[in-house]
Amino acid sequence: MALLTREAKGVFAISPTPFDEDGAVDFDSLRRLVDFYESVGVTGITLLGQMGEAPKLSHDEATRIVSQVLQWTRLPVVVGVSAPGYAAMRELTSDVMAAGAAGVMVAPPNTLRTDDQIVGYYEGVAAALGDSVPLVLQDYPLSFSVVMSPKVVARIARAVPSCVMLKHEDWPGLEKISALRDFEAAGEMPRLSILCGNGGLFLDFEVERGADGAMTGYCFPEMLVDVVTGADRIEESHDIFDAHLPLLRYEQQPGIGLAVRKYVMKRRGLLASDAQRAPRGVLSSRARAEIDYLLARLGRLDKRANLVA
Amino acid sequence: MALLTREAKGVFAISPTPFDEDGAVDFDSLRRLVDFYESVGVTGITLLGQMGEAPKLSHDEATRIVSQVLQWTRLPVVVGVSAPGYAAMRELTSDVMAAGAAGVMVAPPNTLRTDDQIVGYYEGVAAALGDSVPLVLQDYPLSFSVVMSPKVVARIARAVPSCVMLKHEDWPGLEKISALRDFEAAGEMPRLSILCGNGGLFLDFEVERGADGAMTGYCFPEMLVDVVTGADRIEESHDIFDAHLPLLRYEQQPGIGLAVRKYVMKRRGLLASDAQRAPRGVLSSRARAEIDYLLARLGRLDKRANLVA
Amino acid sequence: MALLTREAKGVFAISPTPFDEDGAVDFDSLRRLVDFYESVGVTGITLLGQMGEAPKLSHDEATRIVSQVLQWTRLPVVVGVSAPGYAAMRELTSDVMAAGAAGVMVAPPNTLRTDDQIVGYYEGVAAALGDSVPLVLQDYPLSFSVVMSPKVVARIARAVPSCVMLKHEDWPGLEKISALRDFEAAGEMPRLSILCGNGGLFLDFEVERGADGAMTGYCFPEMLVDVVTGADRIEESHDIFDAHLPLLRYEQQPGIGLAVRKYVMKRRGLLASDAQRAPRGVLSSRARAEIDYLLARLGRLDKRANLVA
Amino acid sequence: MALLTREAKGVFAISPTPFDEDGAVDFDSLRRLVDFYESVGVTGITLLGQMGEAPKLSHDEATRIVSQVLQWTRLPVVVGVSAPGYAAMRELTSDVMAAGAAGVMVAPPNTLRTDDQIVGYYEGVAAALGDSVPLVLQDYPLSFSVVMSPKVVARIARAVPSCVMLKHEDWPGLEKISALRDFEAAGEMPRLSILCGNGGLFLDFEVERGADGAMTGYCFPEMLVDVVTGADRIEESHDIFDAHLPLLRYEQQPGIGLAVRKYVMKRRGLLASDAQRAPRGVLSSRARAEIDYLLARLGRLDKRANLVA
After folding, report:
1. Which residues in chain B have their CB less than 8 angstroms from residue D279's CB?
2. Which of C46, C259, D25, D304 lies 20 to 30 A from B107 at CA?
């Protein structure tokens, strides 16, 4: 399987982990998801991210999920391997790279504060995982409380040659994309593939700022693909983005966002169940009605959202 | 001037503080803002909030701003008086209540952690300010890092009789509104007026959940008024809300949100300058072009956004 | 092997994990440590705590360390199993309980804020691990940023019957011990064994307040035993405690504390090497000279500290 | 009055603010304190620090306290002026410098994260206060959650010429002192006076590492003077430090530390009352008995601690 490169672009779909009502991993739904992602034109799949309920999986479950997906698809697969220590990170990385993963993604522990601490942490990651494993730097201050200035991202890019991609989910983050592309143009850092997360909330402008695409798990990845590939159809890109924004915003709520996503994916027929393992956010009947209402409104503007009730 | 009550509803506009290019308070623009707010149907005005750059004002400037606004309007005026200690809070409260303010708003210091610490803090506030000063509880975990469960809000409402309003900006927060209204229905807490902040990002559903309105500073308060007063025109409310959502989301970015707001208000002719005092977020030319683009798109759906270039 | 009970008392030594200069687990030194702990009168051993470098161990290394120690000693062994999710926690717990551990210790994830979140987390832990696994609640706000009021500890004790011990390392914490013992006397919570951590910095008074002993890793556990068993010799207890306090304080520094501890244990002949796995705190030559100086001064008051240079 | 310089040394006593039982500022006790500080050989006084209950004082009270103390003493007086915004900071600075203060001390707001944010904040402080006001940089991560690497301190020292002193209370912090002195020796930053806070918990070694003295409020400043001036009597310095360490440690507890300090100062006859304004930590009778016990033990080693019961 090809390794992740600095030239990666498009949409890497962050896959949820399907469970059945008893809490077992639902591999049938996972297969369906993978086929779906391929059918809508994503260019990669990300497994075991935070929204993949990775901490709720045993090591064996985690590696089996990765192995199965790698047997089903030829798309590059990125695997989240964040862990409190380098040892567990190395174990999982070793297993998933052997199975054919394209690279691994590492979020910073939320105790890091100074610039040097952050850079040093990623130097340690690379030393622990080995130089040959492509690394995705996850920059998500809202969730991890670690704030990386553009200069720190540039320092990491210089100091860690295996770091080839930035999962960009700073907020606000548009200027950061511009700053990084300016650094690259000035020869101050090697190029990084920049894929945007943060639920896609600013994807309409992120692409225009120079991002290579998206890495997020919004329940209609078709829209993400539309926007990322629509650089020469600006108005149409904004139209489809804006049509989805009310639902996208609703899905992006901390704590219950994954419940929203799984609920819609179940309604779309992709997941047999929207069950999560504990701890989980739960949708009230009022919340489900609100989502149904948003879907109905969206269906008028994007026929792909016309779901059978 | 009438005091704030538990029955308050509608839209309380959080006013920015206008400065001229030299950094002096621009009272002409402030007057224009107050007239504008009245003209669009807001039911109250909030001064010296975080988005009012309160910490950048001297005590004299702050009290003069409040006094002036109170001379210009008969709308109830809420004043932000958050401070690291009760002494400064009491001084400012005393001055603004004497000038005719309807109540004061207090955010929690970000060192509070346990339920008891939070409740105790607001008991201390009431003891410091006196029972006769109507108090607005500001619940904004994203900004203050203080997390109040619905039970804690209910405890504060019971323990602090002068607390009559919740500025609700938890995220996600829809279930919290429902939980509080359920508590009230069950007789477990006195009624609070609930006005929603958080930039208005969920206002479409917050009103349906039982909120009494909005307290936020979005650059088109007309839309907030439309949504809050549109309870019997659900589809139309969502239509106008959704039309504004791309811009609203852009304005709600931490750090640069106020720069966006002031830029649009300047373009609307409300502010003579979009200057902020330091420390300030600054808009790049790319950012201004993005805002202009969003305004142009919005203008097609809401003619009030058709601004002269 | 007997399970941990609410009546546990004495000193549970938190063992460091010995490594050789190449970073491999040094089982010879570990054996020596266990024999040493038994020889000085500790009543239990804690493995895989934060100071045991647990996150730097692979799952296999962690379980092998526990198995080996359990073959060498009949003392009750508590194992740290904190993990970002319940799945990994359950896996490790299952393995170490099968090997004969007396119980497991769980620290709260540092995202918990409200009282309900904290109680709910430990209810979830008990549900994940099963009711038959004795649980040690680790209350260490300085390190984990989670603040538990005495009422929250009492709620956990009531809601989670398998929780039998509190590792108490709040700071300040003397009043918390008194409050918990008062709750117990009033029948408001079941008894917990309270063993004090926080480097032992307040052990002199903690015992007088009602703690059952210590669970910490100070490099002279003999002193901890002296203080914990010296309840009827108050002055002597304080004398020996005060003699060690300068070194104890030096060892308790965040970040480099473990380096200090391993350095002294190497000088005492207990560890073949003071190596740590990355990331690690490193002692400068000035720091080592300071420790040597403190040891020399201590040696005049406690002959057990008269080490060969 | 002379301004603070980079050559400042000795002990700057952080004065508590005395209140009477009704909560009024007790100027008689304050006068007594100032006389006492002079009598024991301190080289400066710090007012309105966190331990001076500054946030509980009105602006008028704060400025009156500073004015009074400046009339009573010729020692240099540093005033804490930390505030949420530059405006209040500038107002207080202007007033106290006009009254004769030697300089002001500013702690960082706890929202700062990146190196650039921290440096930028202090550049903004200097711009707000003016270049002629000597500035003390307060580096206290345990209390403010802002972590400054030695490189950041050096950057501030270079970027802000008016910054002449570091109040050093990082923990652990010995290596930071050495690193800063090494930077100075290498010409990479201008000299800073380094006075150590953190309750004096590491003062014995801080002086040996190159600190110029202490700025803290321990209830026996005589000991601080002994240690700081005892560089040529190393053993005696450690003896007196170690004798005080059990009490010093007890006083250094967060939350109740000031209550301990005021209690001892009252027992010493320096304060008429140990009252604090709300919010306050309160000593239980058990805590007071513990302090009395520590004082009795200390009195055997340091006759200055032999207090009348």
Report:
1. 86, 120-121, 124
2. D25
